[in-house]
Amino acid sequence: MTTAPQFPEFSMIDPRMRWVWFAQYSFWLSIPAIGISIALVVFDFWWLSPFVFVLIYLGSYFYVMKAYARYGYAIAEAGLWLRHGVIWQAIRFVPRARVQHTDVVHGPIDRKLELAQLVVNTAGLQYQNVSIPGLTEARAHELRDLLLLQTG
Amino acid sequence: MARDLPSSEGSRLHRFSFFFVLLGQLWGFAPLLLAAFFVGRSDRYDGWEFIGTGVGALALSAYSLVYTLSFRYWLLDDEIVIKKGFFDRTLRHLPFARISNIAHKQNVLHRIFGVVELNLESGSGAQAEAKLTVLTNTQAAALEQQIRAYQLAGKPLSGKDRNLAQGLSNSSSSAEPSAAISVDASAKLSEAALGDLIRLGLISNRGMLLIGGGFYFLSQTGLSKNNNVFKGIGNTVSGWLGSSHGPLFWVLSILFSMLLILIIVRIASIVVSIIQFYGFKLSGNESTLRTESGLLTRRGGQARIERIALIVINNGWLYRLFKRQGVQVYLPGNAMQGDSMERSGMTHLTPVATLDHVQALIERIFELQISALRWQPLAAKAGRRMAKKALFFGALFWLPLLTFAGLKLTNEATAALCVAAVLSMAWLFYSRHKDARESGYVLLPDFWIIKTGYFSQTIQLVRRDAIQSVGLSSSHFDRTSQMAGVRVDLMVTSMSASPKLKYLSQADAAQLFHLLRIDAMSTLSTPQGPQSAIARSLVEKASAVSAGA
Lengths: 152, 549
Prior knowledge:
The complex is a heterodimer.
Chain A: H1 17-42, H2 49-70, E1 72-75, E2 79-84, E3 89-95, E4 101-105, H3 108-113, E5 115-121, E6 129-136, H4 137-148
Antiparallel strand pairs in A: 1-2, 2-3, 4-5, 5-6
Helix pairs in contact in A: 1-2
Chain B: H1 17-28, H2 30-39, H3 48-70, E1 72-75, E2 79-84, E3 90-95, E4 101-106, H4 108-113, E5 115-121, E6 130-136, H5 137-153, H6 160-165, E7 187-191, H7 194-203, H8 207-221, H9 229-241, H10 247-277, E8 281-284, E9 288-293, E10 298-304, E11 310-314, H11 317-321, E12 324-330, E13 348-354, H12 355-366, E14 376-377, H13 382-408, H14 411-438, E15 440-443, E16 447-452, E17 458-463, E18 467-474, H15 476-480, E19 483-490, E20 500-505, H16 506-523, H17 533-548
Helix pairs in contact in B: 1-3, 7-10, 8-10, 9-10, 13-14
């Protein structure tokens, strides 16, 4: 093993994704926060409830900022690179020849913000779908064309 | 490549297919019927049950009849074409080159009627690409051989053999495929003796499911209410110790119960092993392998060697105690399908065999000498890292328990629990260090070989040209210990077949990731053909056979 590993330069996704993720995390974490608040009211610690919400929203905010900074993608001649994760960090590589097909997906929030998500499908099991969120429509199509471009 | 169908009407399934399709449909509804039987038992009779059952039976029968009558297949030079459906018609072209696994199933009813169910799997999705329910034994053998002959030499069959596969022979019951393509031309590579299957039952926990199902059945039917086994054990122990119900009574009762459960599980495991693997046989030649096994339902499969994506050698401490190993294989497409608890097609090279036999088998099929490998170790502090994790979870278990014991139980009981806690933590510390020392990996031109654990050791042989994607990952604790892990994704539809190696040094992990990545790219630059050394040699051998013919 003499070859030094090389990683490409990763591109960032659209910064508006930070707010999309923050809205998603806040929404889902509000459910346990409401449960905890009810428990605090029942046990007469109601004055702690606002702190629970503040803690959850602040935690979500800092986590999302960190996750955004870590999230990166690169389409090289060899294939697709993806870097993600805050606590469990990972770099994943999908060879170009392993790409079965691609989808450009728009969720309701994506449509509102004029964003798109490129989903790359392989024949694998664990990472059957590798997705890059937070792309403009044009960028998603450009990346798709780049990825499906036959080399050699 | 899709093309027009030949002008002929094609071949139909066997004339008893309707019956087997109907049985399959009923089997699919079995959980619903059982639930209705146990949950909906009622003394009130109003006749609606019969009407409902009658309508359901008619609907299933109509579906089965339409399915079998509309089903046609054509065997062309390089593909099988299937047309099925009446209202929702499907026309499917399945090239022989794409078929990775031919799974066959033959239960007692199949054997009585002399038929077999054949599934052709290509790995695109969890379901078989073509399901032929059912064909005569001769038709199925000829079809398998046509696919095998094409895959080996790119040479289509003609005349008698193709007629056999399509059921067009005048005397189908007596006709046999020609010697040139006979299944028996393959050499027998492995068999499982009854003694070894009994050992496998003692090694594995296959009976747990059976026991669990038995307990569930007893609890649902109420048969267990007047037959309390544990009360009987308590009475037996009371008989030994007189009327005393002190700590010794409870310790002996628990030990006796555990021993009884262990014996029952082992007996059930032996029964399951024999039912699953009785008459196991592996045969093959330089390019293709074929297995069959089973006491009641004979299952098996046929696959090209180069399509085997992952080989897993089971080498846990019980296997080592009996001086045996087991070898599983994973192929694209042989997933657990529908309500089946087992993967379809070829799943094992041998369920259990002596170490020498397994070594010889691996060497013969994959040209690998496992015993001669020089293993690369995990990171130097991997044992400490693994032990810390295990001790953390051990402490999470023991601390609340000991706190409770200190507050509520006697001093003797608390002391006994403290001793148990210390012993279990010491065991965790030792076993994790041992696991780390015995784990490692080897990177060969065709395979990435991973050895993990000691007490439940497995050796995974990952075929490098089957890798779909490669990942390099690390948790917060990995990064503080300068460690990382590598994981690859394969084209096999089983969650247990996702090879990964954790606790490598960061430098080794990055190098390994890089090499596997380059390998995945280079082997796939020409997707039309396999590029590994073994696959290349197989192609050369196949070409030689073709040229000789």
